[in-house]
Every structure is written in C-alpha cells, then in structure tokens.
C-alpha cells in the first residue's frame, strides 16, 4: 500500500515534458532527413512520440510504480531548465533529454532503493528487445524497419547511460544494492546497444 500523497501538477508536468521532448526529438530527426515533406514530418512526429513515451516516460513511470508499490512517495516533476536544454540542444543535433524526473521519498532500505532504480533501465531494455524483435520480423524493407531499429537503439542507449554508476544516475543505486544485478543489467544494455549500432 502506498502513500496517498499527490503532487497536484503532476499530470500537467508529464504532458508538458512529453510534448517538449517529442518536439526536441522531432527537430533532430527532421534535421537529419535529406528531404522534407508532409509524409516525412508525419513519420518523424510519430517516431519522436514513440521515443519519448518508451525511452523517457515509461522509464520514469516504472520508477514511480515500483516506488509506490514499496509504500514510498513518488511523483513526476517537470524540470523547466532541462526542457529548455532539450529544445536548445536539439537544434545542433543532440538532445539533453532530462525534462523532469520522478521524485521519490519514504524508501530507505537499500534493496528497495536499488530495485526502484533498476526499474527504469529495465523498462528500457524490455522496450529495446520488443522493438528489436519487431525490426527482425519486419525485415529490412520499407520505411518502418529503420524506425524500429532507431527505437530499439535509443532505448538500449537510455538503459546503458542510466546504468553509469555515478550519482544521480540509476546505476549508482543499483550498484550499491547488488553488484550482480548491476553487472547483468549493464552487460545486457551494452550488448543490445552494440548489436544495434554495428
């Protein structure tokens, strides 16, 4: 049973973060396109939204779900500066993808802290595998295949980056809890990422 504490602006913060980060990814994808058309824009928008929902939002909501399942206080809060940085950096072809995060309180046991931290990269790994399987099933033809590959690659990258054992990233909390869980998760994320970029 989790605390009933609610951050009154959480839903609004989530919507703003998702829309802003989707726009940032859209800018990067469109900039990398050789041609621009309504069809390209529609595909770029769809891909950008899927990246944001799976690589970012699902990651954060996984932290939130597991924290609350342990009786903790957990809510998403927008970081306006992070959102501005995401939009500004997207113009030069990279993204500082940190428009907000789940704030967590009331959890003190090391194993619970570690499992809550692991939930985010774990969700990214799961989505990377799902998109990789879809990519393999779709074959190498058509416009969908490269999008599936990019979705898988970016989810693997989000998992890999977040497993760096440096505060405030998830890897530090996972390593403090269980070195085996840390090593296994890091290895899986790295293998997935290398498979997708080679």
TrEMBL record:
<keyword id="KW-0812">Transmembrane</keyword>
<keyword id="KW-0482">Metalloprotease</keyword>
<keyword id="KW-1133">Transmembrane helix</keyword>
<feature type="transmembrane region" description="Helical">
    <location>
        <begin position="78"/>
        <end position="98"/>
    </location>
</feature>
<dbReference type="InterPro" id="IPR044537">
    <property type="entry name" value="Rip2-like"/>
</dbReference>
<keyword id="KW-1003">Cell membrane</keyword>
<feature type="transmembrane region" description="Helical">
    <location>
        <begin position="118"/>
        <end position="138"/>
    </location>
</feature>
<keyword id="KW-0862">Zinc</keyword>
<feature type="transmembrane region" description="Helical">
    <location>
        <begin position="12"/>
        <end position="30"/>
    </location>
</feature>
<keyword id="KW-0378">Hydrolase</keyword>
<dbReference type="GO" id="GO:0046872">
    <property type="term" value="F:metal ion binding"/>
</dbReference>
<protein>
    <recommendedName>
        <fullName>Site-2 protease family protein</fullName>
    </recommendedName>
</protein>
<dbReference type="GO" id="GO:0008237">
    <property type="term" value="F:metallopeptidase activity"/>
</dbReference>
<feature type="transmembrane region" description="Helical">
    <location>
        <begin position="36"/>
        <end position="58"/>
    </location>
</feature>
<dbReference type="InterPro" id="IPR052348">
    <property type="entry name" value="Metallopeptidase_M50B"/>
</dbReference>
<keyword id="KW-0645">Protease</keyword>
<keyword id="KW-0479">Metal-binding</keyword>
<dbReference type="GO" id="GO:0006508">
    <property type="term" value="P:proteolysis"/>
</dbReference>
<feature type="transmembrane region" description="Helical">
    <location>
        <begin position="179"/>
        <end position="197"/>
    </location>
</feature>
<comment type="similarity">
    <text>Belongs to the peptidase M50B family.</text>
</comment>
<dbReference type="GO" id="GO:0005886">
    <property type="term" value="C:plasma membrane"/>
</dbReference>
<keyword id="KW-0472">Membrane</keyword>
């Amino acid at each position: 049973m989790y605390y009933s504490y609610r951050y009154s602006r959480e839903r609004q913060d989530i919507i703003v973060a998702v829309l802003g980060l989707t726009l940032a990814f859209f800018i990067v994808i469109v900039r990398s396109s050789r041609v621009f058309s309504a069809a390209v824009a529609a595909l770029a928008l769809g891909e950008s939204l899927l990246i944001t929902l799976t690589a970012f939002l699902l990651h954060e909501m996984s932290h939130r779900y597991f924290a609350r399942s342990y009786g903790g206080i957990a809510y998403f809060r927008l970081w306006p500066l992070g959102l501005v940085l995401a939009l500004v950096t997207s113009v030069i072809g990279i993204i500082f993808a940190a428009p907000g995060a789940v704030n967590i309180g009331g959890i003190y046991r090391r194993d619970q802290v570690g499992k809550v931290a692991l939930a985010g990269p774990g969700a990214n790994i799961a989505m990377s595998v799902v998109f990789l399987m879809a990519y393999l099933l779709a074959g190498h033809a058509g416009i969908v295949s490269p999008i599936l590959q990019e979705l898988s690659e970016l989810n693997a990258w989000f998992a890999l980056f977040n497993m760096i054992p440096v505060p405030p990233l998830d890897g530090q909390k996972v390593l403090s809890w269980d070195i085996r869980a840390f090593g296994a998760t890091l290895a899986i994320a790295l293998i997935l990422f290398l498979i997708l970029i080679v």
